[in-house]
Amino acid sequence: MTDETTHAVAFTPEDLPTAKSFFVPHRIVMMLVFAAFVVAVAVFMRWDWLPRYLPRLGWGILVSLVMLFSTAILGFLLAVPIGLVQVTGPWFLKLPAKIFCTVIRGTPLLLQLWLLYYGLGSLFPQFPAIRQSFLWPYLREAWPYGVAALTISFAAYEGEVMRGAFAGVPPGELEAAKAYGMGRWAMFRRIWLPRAIHRALPTLNGETVLQLKSTPLVATVTVVDVYAVISKVRQETFLTYEPLLLLALIYMCLTGILVVAFRTFENRIPTRGA
Amino acid sequence: MAADSLINWGLLSLNAPGWGGVLLQGFFNSIQIAVGGFTLGLALGIGGAFGKLYGGPVLRDLLECYTTVVRAVPELVLILLLYYAGTDLLNQVLALFSIGPVDISGLMAGIFVIGVVQGAYSTEVLRGAIKAVPAGQIEAARAYGMSPTKVLRRITLPAMLPYAIPGLSNLWLIATKDTALLAVVGFSELTLVTRQAAGTTKAYLLFFLAAGALYLALTLVSNVFIGMLERHARRGFAESR
Amino acid sequence: MKKALKVLAVAAAIAVSGGVAASAEALKVGVAAEPYPPFTAPDASGNWEGWEVEFMNAMCAEAKLECVLTPVAWDGIIPALTSKKIDMIISSMSITDERLKTIDFSDKYYNTPTGIIGTKGVDIKSTPESLNGKTLGVQVSTVHQAYAAKHFAPAGVEVKEYQTQDEANNDLAAGRLDAVQADAIALKAFLATDQGKECCDYKGDVAEDVAVIGPGVGVGLRKGETELKDKVNAAIKAIRDNGSYDTFSKKYFDFDIYGE
């Protein structure tokens, strides 16, 4: 996915408003209208269920965040070699990496998740060796499948980004490193990787927001994240709009926090020139 | 049993004991929703992009809210909200114009839901593309005395296309994959019928792999067309990237 | 601007009404979009079949209603009814006080016991003590989930919730669950399949609790639609009396599924 598309489908740091931008007459009026709307929602809709579910909602948010960060980190660690071999690797590494990216990016994540959980998951117990192994208590749970599916998906999308980033590092910089007598590993570690990550950073932000937007899918395989908690509220109270509105609000806050964090992080990275 | 379920290709046959026909019907539904949703999204996106660039301050802010919400909230949540609330809302809007409530089919609801999500994405893609059109070209058209609609039709839309096509083709691919999320509201698209087939026959791997192959084929075929389209739109451009 | 909006709205209305083939009078009957044999399950040509489909056809024919079967996600089936996406629920939904707060029900049209199945060879019974420390699967928003939450969860049973019954059964076969609680007939249908025969057996009915399990399964209706409710109730009574209920039930069961 190109940089621009990621920006188009995910909320990114450049979309953050500044504090000053709110003090424009029409915006103040709009905010008042919106505040009235919020008050109306709070007063006229049913929220009496909220206190009962607060602790569970907190846990759900935590599970969602753990899912997000663990899979983004694992996925990124996979994405670096996937991107690298597509730029410099021999064909027998390049081809599988290319196929991996194409297949994962060409099929819906929901289908991949169900394939892992219901497809692969129902095969495992038929092998007594797996059933008796130390892994079985984990394979019985749902979360490893959620983590695996999200990690694979992130690795494929981010692998493509890293491929572009590695390819985009100016050859002159690499040649300069060689001229300094750096070995291949030193050159990769000191020049190529940091420069590539730097180039990929804006897209990485967007991809991480996209990953947050993908996490609720794990609720469909019995992982109890914030989405699952809200589903539970919907089922127990038979309310439709209130829990979903709250859920949308929760995700907007999470995205907002994530994006602010990214901007702070980005600002701390020194950049020279344009 | 594992071996059986892996190699029982008969389950995929197109006629009754096999589920191939049902799968293809679901695939057809998915494509219909993707095409409809993408088209609706494009229409919303053109309106949204022009509104964001040339509209009044209030319109611009409202559009900003729309694109921000859609880009910050998971599609799955939006789909649930729009699926239940959207059709209610449409009927209420129609009632305002004193048109009786209409019966909304699952297909229409699906197209509407995907379309609203895609609309926000295309607004952003198209806004970027319009901004990439050199201002001089639009000014020149105005100087020739073209009316705003004529400028739009003859200059802005054709000139922005090469910039918009890469982003829009990505959105098309996203649309085809987002249709799978409608499985969660019980719409009979490919992913849901696959799960029904898999659940009934217990051949989970076979059916999920088959559905994956169908989605992948759609993506690959789309990519071929996108490549052709891109070359066509970029003719006369200096090769840069 | 307003005119343009109106044109748009009319265009949308035409597009939308063009999208539905069925006439406005046809009633959409919601069923859960998942295989739930022997009650409702899609066959390989995409048609829905099973006892409940035959019940629906017989009942609608008797009440002279035009019914169209409409698959809906189970966990959203009540919102679908209240937001008028569907007009009736015929999906093995038990009549409970909790649901009666939101929707209305016809008289019951079947009633069966609730039971528990578990992994073969493992000695468990359908009692809270016996399931202590075990993982029990139930389908969300069912009476079984409510029952498990009330009787099993406090006794140290880990209750895991599934969107569909089929997924719970599958996870039991895959060894991710120790037991599954559900409608006894649906469970016995699962035990009769190859997968069920291989993995599991019936551990027994659970102890009665009418307050949670309810008096049986009824047709879900929107509140206030008494005319439709009367028609449905009359039709259920009529097909019970004229024997057609027994005729199609015999194809599936060797006992009277209607219960007491």
Q: What distinguishing features does this structure have?
A:
heterotrimer; A: 274 residues; MetI-like fold; 12 helices; B: 241 residues; mainly alpha; 78% helix; disordered N terminus
Give a structural overview:
The complex is a heterotrimer of chains A (274), B (241) and C (260). Chain A is built from twelve helices and no strands. With 274 residues, chain A is mainly alpha-helical. In chain A, helix 3 packs antiparallel against helix 4. Chain A is flat, with a radius of gyration of 23 Å. The model of chain A has no long low-confidence stretch (mean pLDDT 90). With 241 residues, chain B is mainly α. Chain B has one domain: MetI-like (MetI-like fold, Orthogonal Bundle), CATH 1.10.3720.10. In chain B, 78% of the residues lie in helices and 0% in strands. Chain B contains nine helices and no strands. In chain B, helix 7 runs antiparallel to helix 9. The radius of gyration of chain B is 22 Å and the shape is globular. Chain C folds into two domains: 124 residues, D-Maltodextrin-Binding Protein, domain 2 (3-Layer(aba) Sandwich); 100 residues, Periplasmic binding protein-like II (D-Maltodextrin-Binding Protein, domain 2, 3-Layer(aba) Sandwich). Chain C starts with a helix and ends in a 10-residue tail after the last helix. In chain C, helix 2 crosses helix 10. About 4% of the residues of chain C have low confidence. In chain C, strand 2 and strand 3 form a beta hairpin. In chain C, the strands form three sheets. Chain C has a five-stranded mixed sheet with strand order 4-1-5-12-6. A five-stranded mixed sheet of chain C has the order 9-8-10-7-11, sandwiched between helices. A two-stranded antiparallel sheet of chain C has the order 2-3. Chains in contact: A-B, A-C, B-C. At the A-B interface, helix 1, helix 2, helix 4, helix 5 and helix 10 of A face helix 3, helix 4, helix 5, helix 7 and helix 8 of B.
Question: Quick summary of this structure?
Answer:
The complex is a heterotrimer of chains A (274), B (241) and C (260). Chain B has 241 residues and is an all-alpha fold. In chain B, 78% of the residues lie in helices and 0% in strands.
